[in-house]
């Protein structure tokens, strides 16, 4: 469904993403992890079109989308959320979501867009706050709105950038259930998340970025046991904890003298 070939992005000559090859199959749910500054958000920007590529190619359903503007990619079915939520602050929650329905793929008229927005708000648990102004929302509700705005585009590929950051454990459970339901409805999902328990439980496959480069890719239990991932991101103790949560049979290799993180 999605293929990145030799994709790079430089900011002022410094690489944020370097020669990245990565592909996602239709119907997958793939997690992207890596330390701060690894290039995860940049990668989402390159796929959604909010950032231009420095080099390489991105293909979506066989089409070269590398130079298409974001709205054209949205018409093709690619929607994203922003790590720092980006609502139209002066508009109501419903109006924010209606924009996706009005200007999205189906280009709905006002009444139909309102109906579509209300259905999405119901789905993300924001129906009771449809009339609130976006800037009156709590952090958790802003995250829900961010997701609702993306869902209003009726995406085939949904790119989620840290939608669980700042949520309480209960809110996180709800978010995980919602992402699972979205995936089960046929949407292919790419999730960036630092909350390991969430991403390990959700993802069929994980890709690990470090300094703009892919250092590992595979099923969660394989990635948790990968020494490069442990050194670059997880730390020994954390990897062991997560692995025992997953019930993986393979032990994480121990390394003496390594400072434990996480
Ligand atoms: N607009 C920009 N201008 C200049 N440098 C940028 C810009 N956006 C990102 N960078 C740099 O690119 C690198 C990758 O950043 P990015 O935000 O993609 O990392 P990340 O993996 O998403 O990190 P985090 O987990 O903290 O969100 C960092 O060194 C960052 O400072």
TrEMBL record:
InterPro entries the UniProt entry points to: AAA+_ATPase, ABC_AA/LPS_Transport, ABC_transporter-like_ATP-bd, BCA_ABC_TP_C, P-loop_NTPase
CDD domains the record matches: ABC_Mj1267_LivG_branched
Keywords, comma-separated and alphabetical: ATP-binding, Nucleotide-binding, Transport
Molecular function as annotated in GO: ATP binding; ATP hydrolysis activity; L-isoleucine transmembrane transporter activity; L-phenylalanine transmembrane transporter activity; L-valine transmembrane transporter activity
Biased composition (Basic and acidic residues): 253-262
Organism superkingdom: Bacteria
Domain ABC transporter: 2-236
Record-linked SUPFAM superfamilies: P-loop containing nucleoside triphosphate hydrolases
Name listed for the protein in its UniProt record: ABC transporter ATP-binding protein
Source organism: Thermogemmatispora tikiterensis
Organism phylogeny: Bacteria, Bacillati, Chloroflexota, Ktedonobacteria, Thermogemmatisporales
